[in-house]
Specification:
The protein has two domains: 186 residues, Rossmann fold (3-Layer(aba) Sandwich); 166 residues, Glycogen Phosphorylase B (Rossmann fold, 3-Layer(aba) Sandwich). The chain is 44% helix and 17% strand. It contains 15 helices and 14 strands.
């Protein structure tokens, strides 16, 4: 079976798209091609990348959907598997000629309610209209993949072929040993960071932590969006210096385990937006895989996973003083930090690995193959 994966918002080497789904499909004997914004066509690990010129803006992403559609048609695939909501029109056109799967990563309608680049008066209307369009379109696709059971329930109202495919980390990548001793006070946030993901909370908290623990360092590893920060953070460099905070930027996926291994405490300080109240943060599971004690916001899946696995402490979401207190607590109590890390490591290997999830992905494709016969 030939599978064509489409994305406009992600790298062709995205963790979920390439390292998990595409590799799982290729190892199962399928021919896999990914159409994505990239600088050149190439072949990696048996997966062909068909590049379209990178987009310079969100607006250009929409204007140039035609390029994606034309490239997809030329592939003449048996199944088209798309990952971004702006590709819904492309998916609708492709379903006339082949099987189409919509892979939903997040609550896109809810996320529009907090997008700084969208005028505030238009956010509710945009979110409402998008939600209606998404659910209407989903009824025409051969399958819908979601990242949790709550989201699956929403799509099952319009399409019976819905599968929950948790975006759990690869156990084969996270081969770090179970921790045996506490680590240095390097505080880590992994992934894209902005205001709603807790950037302001971290900056304020670290300014307090370093007054008591000047040796503490906080590393933010991932792309940072600073356009939506409050006016008091206009001099961002001063805040970074005050809290010993380092903006490391995005790193290759293969380097994530090394960064985790060099860290001592991990943060999940997301704010309780509509989207994050229902999402499972992949960073939380990666922290657990590395045996790091976690400090997380007290809501949603963050709270339930940390509480269930006893792998860290919770703080009041958005409360920077509470976050600072939690960081200091773990620095000052290395034995508890070690126990939290060990509990998380055990919980990850017991329940939260991609290898447990990939069978569900292959089952979807096996069902489509049988229908084709």
């Amino acid at each position: 079976m030939k599978v064509c994966i489409l994305t406009t918002a992600h790298s062709p080497f995205d963790e979920r798209i390439f390292h998990k789904e595409a590799k799982s499909l290729e190892m199962a004997g399928n021919e896999v091609v990914i159409i994505a914004p990239h600088t050149q066509n190439q072949l990696r690990d048996g997966i062909r990348i068909r590049a379209v010129p990178p987009f310079r803006s969100r607006r250009e992403r929409v204007y140039r959907l035609r390029d994606i559609y034309r490239a997809a048609k030329l592939e003449r695939a048996d199944v088209y598997h798309f990952h971004d909501p702006d590709l819904i029109p492309v998916g609708m056109l492709l379903q006339r000629r082949a099987r189409v799967i919509y892979d939903v990563h997040e609550y896109y309608g809810d996320s529009l309610m907090t997008r700084y680049w969208l005028p505030r008066p238009l956010r509710y209307l945009a979110a409402h209209l998008f939600d209606k369009l998404e659910k209407f379109s989903a009824r025409f696709f051969d399958a819908v993949i979601t990242v949790n059971s709550h989201m699956a329930g929403q799509f099952q109202r319009v399409n019976p072929l819905v599968e929950v495919l948790h975006n759990y980390p690869l156990e084969s990548q996270f081969t770090l040993p179970r921790p045996e001793k506490p680590k240095a006070p390097v505080i880590l946030y992994l992934g894209g960071i902005n205001r709603e993901r807790g950037l302001e909370v971290i900056l304020r908290a670290m300014a307090l932590v370093t007054q008591v623990h000047p040796e503490a360092v906080c590393e933010l590893v991932g792309p940072a969006e600073t356009e939506d920060l409050s006016a008091e953070f206009a001099d961002l460099e001063a805040w970074l210096q005050r809290g010993n905070v380092k903006l490391r930027g995005k790193i290759p996926y293969e380097e994530v385990p090394r960064v985790l291994e060099e860290s001592g405490i991990a943060l999940v300080p997301l704010l309780p937006t509509l989207n994050y109240q229902k999402a499972i943060p992949i960073k939380l599971l990666e922290y657990m895989a590395a045996g790091l004690p976690v400090i997380g916001s007290d809501f949603g899946y963050i709270e339930s996973i940390i509480s269930k696995n006893k792998c860290g402490v919770l703080f009041e979401a958005g409360n920077h003083a509470a976050l600072a207190q939690s960081i200091s607590r773990l620095i000052e109590d290395p034995e508890s930090s070690l126990e939290f890390g060990q509990n998380g490591w055990d919980g990850f290997h017991r329940e939260y690995t991609w290898e447990r999830e990939q069978a569900k992905l292959l089952r979807i494709y096996q069902g489509i193959a049988k229908e084709e016969q």
